[in-house]
Predict the 3D structure of the following.
Amino acid sequence: MSEFTKYFPARIFEDRFGPCPILTAYWAVPASSINFQLIAAVPGKFIRIVSLCALSEGATSNYTSVFSPGASLGNLVVVAPSTTNSPMLVMPFNPGGYFDSTQGIRVNMNTSAGTQVAVTIRYIVFGI
């Protein structure tokens, strides 16, 4: 058992319906995307983002927004990679979560023009 799973097991989250496993989504979100679906809606449930990593895959930085229709979850600036390294936006694992979706509504992303953004999201789906 790794140190991470020792302290943060996959079944760390539970709601009244039982365990809420940590799920993962990977996307290459095209430039100039509007309402690009990152995580599909689950009827009657919330989506909580517990970690996020994003990288602009071109020579320009990218202003993105992550949202659940009807509620902005956060605006992010994804830095463009330089010639010597590839900086990225990293929001490390946070058991309390960074954002919650609107109940029963998907999570989307908008990107600015110029370049696509590679995104990895870890999340849970839970009810109340």
About this structure: The first strand starts at residue 14 and ends at 15. Residues 3-7 form the longest helix (5 residues). The chain has a mean pLDDT of 79. The chain has one domain: 21-126.
